[in-house]
Every structure is written in structure tokens, then in C-alpha cells.
Amino acid sequence: MMVLSSDCGRNELVSRSVMRAETRPAQCIVRRCIFCFVLTGMFGLCGCGQSAPPAQGKSPAKNSSVPTAPSSVPQTTENASERDQLVRIDKNGRKWLGNVPYDVWFDDPLTVADDRRPTGPSGGDTQVPVTQSPAPQADEPAEDPPSDAGADWANVVSAAVLNAEIKKIRNEIAGYMGRVGQYNSHYKDVKFLGATLAALGGVLAEHPDADKGAQRGPMIRDIGTQIEQAANGLGMKSYKAAQIPLEQLTLVLSGGRPSDVAELPEDVPLSERADRGGLMKRMQGAFEWLKKNITNEAEFKRQLEPIEHESGILAALTKVIADESYESAGDPEYSEEAAGLLQSARGLTEAAIAKNFEAFSKALNNAEQRCIRCHTDYR
Predict the structure, then answer these.
(1) Burial 129-140, CB ≥16 within 10 A → b, else e
(2) 53-112: per-residue pLDDT in tens?
(3) Which residues, listed in sequence order, are joined to residue 96 by a DSSP beta bridge?
(4) What's domain 278-378's architecture?
(5) What is the pTM of this model?
(6) 335-355, pLDDT tens digit by residue?
(7) What is the residue extent of each domain of the chain?
(8) Which of 352, 356, 210, 214 is CA-nearest to residue 286?
């Protein structure tokens, strides 16, 4: 009867331990389970009245895959036998110790019980330590993006467009200089072309992609200035004066180097090398060609190369006339209009490269509005 009572007591205590373990942390489960086994051992001793000496030199075998019951209490032969009788396996293959699932036990319950670290925020002041990664270093402050007025020449016009325009200017001047009569009819055109030649020669000298053109750029610039200054009126004198730099230009473009070019000092301001009136005339010609000839998408796609050329020259000369040496260049409104026109001209070039007619039309309209406002205020 005492043995039966002990068994019932053990089962009831074990069951209560399981119910409490379901609602408490792992540490409480281990301690309750150890307490149950201590009571089991005590009831066993009381019921039998004797005990066998503990086994010598033996320890419970460990299985890393199946958890074992805690072994903190010395086991007797009778206790071990009684415990083995309580072990059962249900129809689902799950192992039980009495009414307690066998897999509730930790592999090393004493180690778990001794672990005093908090398992979570149990109170308002408890904080779980968080490993923080080092704060990223702030990047160096980025420089302000360059404005269109200070854009690199490679982003304004290609070296190929510059060289093509310089050759075109040379041919146009030569066409006006066949005879003195032709010159007299077009001397103003020669003068304007000379100014444009001087400006583009200066751009070529600074262009990063010009290669050999960069070396001849200063010479072309000075020859253009001489042509502009020579074609200052009618008659044979002005005609012959303009013939000399034209011949020099032909030699330079052929790969030669004339020895008698009158070079100007480098500190001569751009406004004295290239008259703005001549540059404005060429800019107007570029815009009018684009507006007159590119009226639909089919024509746009057919003339992509001329569009890129004319818009590149428009952009380059717009940047030139923004030079501080020109009158009104220091005026904020003038600078704003020049920067806006430069942006629109670059938009025309980009639209041609991307073959985007809608973007081209928008940029052309913006350029026209800039021209109207600027001419209204500064013409």
C-alpha cells in the first residue's frame, strides 16, 4: 500500500511539475524537475527501508541526440529499477517518464539551472545588450555641381564639330575672296566669320579632346582676329589685308606652320579677339537653321548629324559670350539668360544623340524663349 501510495504521489507531483513548466521559464522547469526526483528518491527509501550502495565507477551514458534525465541525485539500484518501470513509449513513438514527456529534459540541466543571465526583459529596467556596428563615417561633403557656364568644353561641344566648323569657315571666307568685287559685297560676312574663327580657335586650344588641334588652336585664334580686323571696309586695301591671314589659315589646316603669323599677347581679353556681334550672327544662323529645317520627327531623324553640329556651335558660342570681358557679362540677368541658353543648346545636342524628337522640340522652344528675353533687354 505504501509503495502504491508513493507511486501515486510521484505521478501527481510529476504532473503538477509539467503543468507549471508550461507557463514558466526554462530555469523553473529544471529546478522543479530536480525537486521531483529528490522526492522520488526519499519516498523510495522510506518504502523499502534499505538501500544498496551506490554503483562505483559508472556514470549514466550520454546521448547527444536524446536528452537524459538529470543525475544530480545519487541513484540506487532500486530507484533505477523503479524509474525504468515508469519509462514508456506511446503509440506515436514519443518517450515518456511517467506523465512527463521525456524530451523536456535538457542535456545538461545543472548548467542551465546555474545560468543566471536574464532570458528577456522581465522588468522595466532590464535591457538586453545589443551589439552595435560602428557608425559609418560621413562622406566628405560633395562639391557643388558645376553650372552650365563653367562646364568643361567636352560637355559643350565635340572636337570633331569644332574642326568641321573651322574648315567650313575657311571655305566660306575663300568663297567671298575670289575677287575684290565679291569681297566688297560680303566684307561684313568676312568680318563676322573672322570673329567666329577666333572664338572657336580659342575653344580648340582648351578642348581636352582636340589632340593636335589644341596645338594649332592659338594660331587659328590669332588668324581669325586678323581676318576680322582686316575686313573693316570696302576696297582693294582691305581686300589684300584680309587675303594674307586667309592664306595662313589654309596652310595651318593643311598641317603646315606659317612663320609670319602676327600672334597677339595671351593677356588680350576675349572681347578684343572676337567681336560679340559676329558671334551672335552665327548663333542666330544656327538657331534659325534648326527651327526652319527640323519641323517633324522624320526630318529630325534624317538630319541628326547636322543637328548635332549646329547645336554644338550654338552651345560653344553661348559659353564664349558669357566671358566676363564682354559688356554686361557681369549683369546677373545676362548671366542667367546665357546659362539658360547654354543648357537649352546642350539639350538639343543630347536629344540628337538620343534620337528623341520630343526632347529636341522642348529644348528648341526653351532656346527661343531665352533668345527673345535676352534680345529684349540687351540688344
Answers:
(1) eeeeeeeeeeee
(2) 444 444 444 444 444 444 444 444 555 555 555 667 776 676 666 666 656 555 554 454
(3) 88, 101
(4) Up-down Bundle (1.20)
(5) 0.61
(6) 999 999 999 999 999 999 999
(7) 2-50+66-114, 149-273, 278-378
(8) 352
